[in-house]
Amino acid sequence: MNKLDDFFTEDVEKFSKLYFDYLKDVFDKIDLSEIKIFIDILLLARERGATIFFMGNGGSAATASHFANDLAFGTNEYIKPFKAMSITDNMPVITALSNDYGYDEIFIRQLKIYGTKGDVLVGISASGNSENLIKAFKYAATSEIKTVALTAFDGGIMREIADQGIHIPTNMNEYGPAEDLHMVLDHLIGGYLMRLVKK
């Protein structure tokens, strides 16, 4: 059941309060140890000069771009940077691969070109069931590229096959709250790492 449908009211102030209250409830259910593990993965990738790839579809594509930007440039570290990039951003590449090979191929084919052993692949998906993300995760597993799934709902296939992940425990089809909290993770992790590397 979608909680937003349950508490919808035409009273916008009441709806706003209920929406925020629901976000607080979901926040309290997040496993904070998953955030620590993800940060450790990012720090280890930085130490070895590995590339951290982000990917997603729709709103999660925007989050992937934002996350990569905040990690690579928001930390303002150039001597030993976080080599992060979003493989959602090159529209000529995405449209070419989609047109020539199918939309399911847009991430795996980029990973085959850019990815190397020891890199990290972060997939962002509320459902965890997008075929183009799953294909890239399966390729990563055969190429010694570590996978991290940022999911919601029940986590889907991506949560099952990922090496690590952070799960946002929303109800099914609650895309707004799921994507809200994925963006909070971006700013939380970026804000932490920005300060950590400048110590």
Short structural summary:
With about 200 residues, this protein is an alpha/beta fold. It is built from 9 helices and 5 strands; from the N terminus they run αααβαβααβαβαβα. About 55% of the residues lie in helices and about 15% in strands.
CATH superfamily: Glucose-6-phosphate isomerase like protein, domain 1
Query: Percent of residues in helical segments?
Result: 55-70%
CATH fold annotation: Rossmann fold
Radius of gyration: 17 Å
Tell me about the largest β-sheet. Answer: 5 strands, parallel
**Strand coverage percent:** 5-15%
Give the CATH architecture.
Answer: 3-Layer(aba) Sandwich
CATH class label: Alpha Beta
Count of separate DSSP helical elements? 9
Could you tell me the number of beta strands?
A: 5
* Computed structural class: alpha/beta
**Overall pLDDT:** 97
Strand order of the largest sheet: 2-1-3-4-5
H/E element string?
Answer: HHHEHEHHEHEHEH
Overall 3D form? globular
Our count of domains comes out at 1
Describe the structure.
With 199 residues, the chain is of the alpha/beta class. It has one domain (36-196): Rossmann fold. It contains 9 helices and 5 strands. The chain has helices at 3-7, 12-27, 32-48, 59-74, 91-101, 108-114, 131-142, 156-161, 175-196, and strands spanning 51-56, 83-86, 120-124, 146-151, 164-167. It has a 5-stranded parallel sheet, sandwiched between helices. β4 (146-151), α8 (156-161) and β5 form a beta-alpha-beta unit. The longest helix is centred in the C-terminal third of the chain and has 22 residues, at 175-196. The N and C termini lie far apart (45 Å).
